[in-house]
Design a protein that fits this description.
167 residues, mainly beta, seven-stranded antiparallel beta sheet
Length: 167
Amino acid sequence: MLVAGLYLAPAARADNYGAAALEGAIGVKISQRISIAKTASAANGGDLNFGEIYSPTSADTVIMTSAGARSAGNDDVFGNAADASPASFTVNGEPDNTFSISPIPDTEIRDAAGNVMAVTDFTPSLAGSGKLEDGIYIFTVGATLHVAADQPPGAYAGVFDVTVNYN
């Protein structure tokens, strides 16, 4: 986003012939664009990962909070949690500007056979606006995974979009 401010500072002057001229000063401020990237140094390279989950006998939800806590309606669905982590993002922009995160739409993840699970209720660790102290802000995102009864085993993957905007 290009932000420009224009100001004119008139300076009057007169010459010996009774004519007058007016000078105006021109200025502009160009701000750094806001950008977002996965935090590469975070767990799983910044990706959201629910860890290993066993197929439940009845439908269940698995929640990964933005703080990294994992819970489910039935704890029997949990396998290895070593890879479980919230997503992590780094925002870069004009120092001391504020920004907000747009609502994150629900999505689906799939395995190689085309089996699907819904991922909903994306929850960033930042509620409201953040301030780009020194031009940087890091936040995490959790979500809810909907696991069907007897969900087929497989490696499920997908993507979700995160948008940040200057306030």
